[in-house]
Amino acid sequence: MRWAGLCALLLASLAQAEWYSEQQSIMGTSVSAQVWVEGEDAKSRAQEALAAVMAEMQRIDREYSPYKDTSQLSRANRLAPKASAAQPLSISAEFSLLIARSLHYGERSFGAFDITYASLGRYYDYRAGRKPSASERQQALPAINYRHVHLDAERHLLWFAHPQVYIDLGGIAKGYAVDRAVLLLRQRGIEHAVVSAGGDSRLLGDRRGQPWMVGIRNPRAAAGSAALRLPLENCAVSTSGDYERFFIDESGARAHHIINPSTGASAQGIMSATVIGPEGFDTDALSTSVFVLGVEKGITLINSMPGFDAIVISQDGKVHYSQGLAEPD
Ligand code: AMP
Ligand code: MG
User: Fold this and answer.
1) pLDDT class of 103 with cuts at 50, 70, 90
2) Ligand 1 centre from 50 Cα, in Å?
3) Which of 19, 26, 172, 254 could form a disulfide with 285 if both were Cys (CB 3.0 to 4.6 A apart)?
4) What is the band of 327 on the pLDDT scale with cuts at 50, 70, 90?
């Protein structure tokens, strides 16, 4: 009787250790989180942690969505072109951090990563199959240059040195968001988790004794069909793909959402670029950078950055690896 009671007690406590998960549509993509929580009140603690993650994603979307008139980003796009060094726009410390890192990757990627791509990029409508017109292109192209964005990162002041500049953080904000989510989970004592926002994932710890298996999608197959799987733990992994948002234009070409700032057209040569590194803030910006730079320059950039690796699938379907990843047989 005593043993039966003890067993029941053990089973009850075992049932309090589980993986819990949640998925929502936020930031125009699928956001998901999976966490391991054990001990007393595991279920309610997991639910609270998952709710905190989703609330943080909603907050980031509210602040930086280009589609919400009330976001800080929309406010900056309205006011920063009219601001100046003498009369700059005051922004939040966090917005300043996001812009500073974006400008850093503008430099690091030789202009491939450029948040002012949106000066022209905003005229694309992938759902409606719309590209910018010739006159929109002519007007907006000179506005694409991250050097038009002036930031005083210490005092959180911003101004744009060109009247047509329009910025968008779509190439970096999801990576930042998964980092923030993992910070919130760690503050709650969680040691094993995965948080994803579209193509950006951050892995906390391992999968309890095993690595997380992160799939890199076959760019021309249905979602869920992996071209390869990587065993990873405690890192961030971001994939930029030409299949995320695109349409096939009248000439049969794929117009997709990653824009080459020097031409204003969709970047050519790569179907997907994956970057692995410590934090999503960096891997997100770098996956977009590598996509624009192309196979050779992109992999050279990643090889110059200790702690980062890349896997690139070029237009011909070939898979290319950075130095840190041995090619599988
Ligand atoms: P990702 O989702 O990280 O692959 O980045 C693609 C997103 O970044 C697009 O949906 C745009 O919002 C934005 N973007 C497109 N082209 C660029 C570029 N050249 N530099 C920075 N951001 C870009
Ligand atoms: Mg990216």
Assistant:
1) very high
2) 27
3) 172
4) low
